[in-house]
């Protein structure tokens, strides 16, 4: 029965060497020593909001608003487009007011004819 015991016994594997996922190709110990304990800081930028993950608390912390990189030419172009859209919006509101007044007038005339 000794042949069964040896083939089915669980063998311990050798401990694995710590593997670094850094593009610097340094061992994990050297990377931690060179860059410090916070080299694994996770930060994300969603829109113009910057957030950092706090490893100790396991929570996201907002770092504030990051200014978008927009040239002055783009800003003037966007402001011009905004003015055009506001003018179009005002024109459409005026047309809507006129249509509502016309509808109210026609409804009032219809009610007067029905009563008489």
Structure characterization notes:
There is one protein chain. This protein is α+β, with helices and mostly antiparallel strands. Helix content is 51%, strand content 16%. It has a three-stranded antiparallel β-sheet, with no helix packed on it. The radius of gyration is 36 Å and the shape is elongated. The mean pLDDT is 79.
Class from secondary-structure proportions: alpha+beta
Write down how many β-strands occur, each being a DSSP E stretch of 2 or more residues: 3
| Helix and strand sequence | HHEEEH
Average of the residue pLDDT scores: 79
Helix content: 40-55%
What characteristics describe this protein?
single chain, 116 residues, alpha+beta, 3-stranded antiparallel β-sheet
Brief sketch in words of this structure:
This protein has 116 residues and is an alpha+beta fold. The chain contains 3 helices and 3 strands.
Write the layout of secondary structure elements.
Layout lengths: L1 H7 L19 H8 L6 E5 L2 E6 L4 E7 L6 H44 L1
Antiparallel strand pairs: 1-2, 2-3
């Amino acid at each position: 029965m000794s042949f069964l015991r040896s083939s089915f016994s669980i063998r311990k594997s050798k401990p694995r060497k710590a593997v670094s996922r850094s593009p610097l190709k340094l061992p994990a110990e050297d990377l931690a020593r060179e860059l410090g304990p916070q080299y694994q800081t996770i930060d994300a930028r969603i829109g113009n909001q910057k957030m950092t993950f706090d490893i100790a608390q396991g929570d996201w912390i907002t770092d504030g608003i990051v200014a978008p990189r927009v040239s002055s030419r783009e800003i003037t172009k966007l402001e011009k487009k905004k003015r055009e859209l506001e003018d179009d919006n005002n024109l459409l509101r005026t047309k809507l007011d006129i249509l509502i007044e016309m509808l109210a007038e026609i409804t009032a005339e219809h009610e007067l004819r029905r009563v008489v």
